[in-house]
Each structure stands twice: as structure tokens, then as C-alpha cells.
Amino acid sequence: LMRFDRKGFTLIELAIVIIVLGILAVIAAPKFISLRIQGIEGSEDNIIGAMREAINIYHAKNIVAGNNVYPSENPFTLLAQAPPNKVYVPGFIIPGDGVYWRYYLYPDASYVTAWYLMCPHWNGDQFAAGSTKGRFYIYQYGDKGVWGHQAGDLWLYYDSTHK
């Protein structure tokens, strides 16, 4: 009798394992990418939700003091713990880099009294409806209505990629 002493895998066995791993990767990759995007969105939701609550608390304290005024300062300053990466933008159309939250005070105080808040992966396009990637928020703090919004509003503007 001939006896073979096997010390490894055959080429067919290796090919089958590689094919199975490839199939698993094709199935798992989109799910992983989706989970990553959901994580980014959840993080943004937490920051914006905390900011909304801080604005409401500030306003409630003013009402108790007899003054119905919303905070006019940068809303990030109202947070107990602001996002780690935030930067004031002197210009307006500056796309996100995936790292920094950007904020901008609308320059025409006679017309608009609002802070613009851009998420880290915002693509810089705030006016073309349906084209914004990432989130772009406007915090309206003055009495002047902007596009139908009133003082105290913190609203999402032109965002087709989020619900």
C-alpha cells in the first residue's frame, strides 16, 4: 500500500476557502458601511439634540427672569461639553473635511439673525436642494422670520441624505 503523508492543503481546498471568504466580504461590506454612516448620523443627532436642549434651557431661564430672549451667541458655547473639533468659518462656502464642525454667523444682522452650523462631512452646498451631503443647520435666534422660521429654531436645511 502507498501511503501519503499530507502536510498542507490542496489548491482546491484553498480556492474554496478564498471563494467563501470573498462571498462573505461582498455580503458584509455594505452592511458595515451602512452601520458606519448610521453611527455618524447618530453622533450628529446627539450633538444637535444637546444643542437644542441647551437653547431651550437658556430661553427658559430668561423667561423666568422676565426676558423672552433666545441666546444670540454661538450655540456650541451653550453645551456642557462641545464637540471636540469645531472651528469658526470667516467665509461661507467651506466644505467639511470629515473632522471639524464649522459655524458661521450670518453677516447681515439687519436681515437675518442666525448661526449656520455645518457638520464635519458637509459638502459645502447649502442652496441646491437635494445635493447636500452631510448636515447643514441654521439656528435662528432673532425675531426676524427667515424662510418662515422664528426665534429659537434650530432646523435642518436642504438635506436629502438624512431623514
Overview of this protein structure:
There is one protein chain. This protein is α+β, with helices and mostly antiparallel strands and 163 residues long. It has one helix at residues 11-64, and strands spanning 86-88, 101-105, 114-118, 136-140, 154-156. The protein is rod-shaped. The chain starts with 10 loop residues before the first helix and ends in a 7-residue tail after the last strand. It has a 5-stranded mixed beta sheet, with no helix packed on it. 33% of the residues lie in helices and 13% in strands.
Instruction: Please indicate the percent range of residues in DSSP E strands (runs of 2 or more).
Output: 5-15%
Find the structural class using helix and strand composition: alpha+beta
Query: What's the helix count?
Result: 1
| Low-pLDDT ranges | none
Strand order of the largest sheet: 1-2-3-4-5
What is the H-and-E element order? HEEEEE
Alpha-carbon Rg, integer: 25 Å
**Got a strand count?**
5
Mean pLDDT: 75
Terminal Cα separation, in Å? 71 Å
Q: Largest sheet, if any?
A: 5 strands, mixed
Secondary structure: helix percent: 25-40%
Name the shape in a single word.
rod-shaped
